[in-house]
Write a structure and sequence with these properties.
291 residues, mainly alpha, Farnesyl Diphosphate Synthase, globular
Length: 291
């Protein structure tokens, strides 16, 4: 029997700040340029959290049946550890996608029906990250898709369903959030270079190699800092308070550049997720207060 603690661990709760952050940032922009529609913001949060949990279970299932997780360092994997059957984990993934779809349909019905198409693409992208015969996560494209869907689409989409307008500030916020979401994945894949290489999983980290992957992580943190300035220029200079996220982002950056490996990179994932959440709080906060 798989325990509730196993299922919770399999959902990878430490990744959930990456689902909360884009909704906070998008809602902050919506409040500043027009007004926040809180029930829509809540539904957007449900969509984001459900997609994050769904992709975590989907990755657990797909990597588990391929054998990629057999010797992996890091959080417990349900399929790889034998704690749950592949079928059960696959069903959990699609249940989470179903929750996201239900909340997304309400947003589409009250905003614009073309949002349904965006939602379908998000679910397909979530599944084929490690699923299917040629998962794009095994081809080094994972970071691109994370930047697009957990950055740009999530932030701009959250703003749009509340304002029904395109806002450059939301785009810039999406760049910042997307960069830090990518940094989480880069750190994860940096840790997994040895096992991914053996499993022929050609992630971006495997393709770049250890040293350049570490520089890529630092570069993404710099992009997130530049995005704070861009948001401030498009809204209010009070948004520059967001640069204080660097207080949380610099320690993991030092760890990455300092050569941390294996289990030493596990705290980097949590710290980067916390930095992303702090980025959204400190940027969105002034926008909400001044709305």
């Amino acid at each position: 029997m798989t325990s509730s603690a196993d299922w919770l661990a399999g959902a990878r709760p430490r990744t959930l700040p990456a689902a909360v952050a884009p909704v906070l940032a998008g809602t902050g922009v919506a409040a500043y340029v027009d007004h926040a529609v809180w029930w829509k913001a809540l539904l957007a949060l449900v969509v984001s959290l459900a997609l994050q949990v769904g992709v975590n279970y989907a990755n657990d299932y797909s990597d588990g049946v391929r054998g990629t997780d057999a010797d992996r360092v890091g959080p417990m994997r349900l399929v790889g550890s034998g704690a749950a059957s592949p079928g059960a984990v696959k069903a959990a993934a699609f249940a989470a996608f179903g929750v996201a779809a239900a909340a997304g349909l309400v947003l589409a019905a009250t905003t614009a029906w073309w949002i349904v198409a965006v939602g379908v693409v998000c679910v397909v992208a979530a599944w084929f990250y490690t699923g299917g015969e040629r998962p794009y996560g095994y081809l080094g494209l994972g970071e691109v898709m994370v930047f697009v869907f957990f950055g740009l689409v999530a932030v701009v989409g959250t703003t749009y369903v509340q304002t029904r307008t395109w806002e450059w500030a939301a785009f810039y916020a999406g760049v910042g959030i997307g960069a830090l979401a990518c940094a989480i994945l880069v750190a994860n894949n940096l840790r997994d270079i040895p096992t991914d290489t053996l499993a022929d999983k050609r992630t971006l980290a495997v393709r770049l190699g250890d040293e350049r992957t570490r520089y890529a992580y630092a570069f993404l943190v710099l992009v997130a800092a530049a995005a704070v300035v861009a948001v401030a220029a498009a809204t209010t200079w009070w948004a520059l308070l967001g640069l204080a996220f660097l207080a949380r982002a610099l320690p993991p950056t030092r760890a990455v550049l300092g050569g941390a490996t294996g289990g030493g990179l596990v705290p980097v994932l949590a710290a980067t997720g916390a930095a992303e959440l702090l980025w959204s709080l400190l940027v969105a906060g002034p926008l909400l207060v001044l709305s």
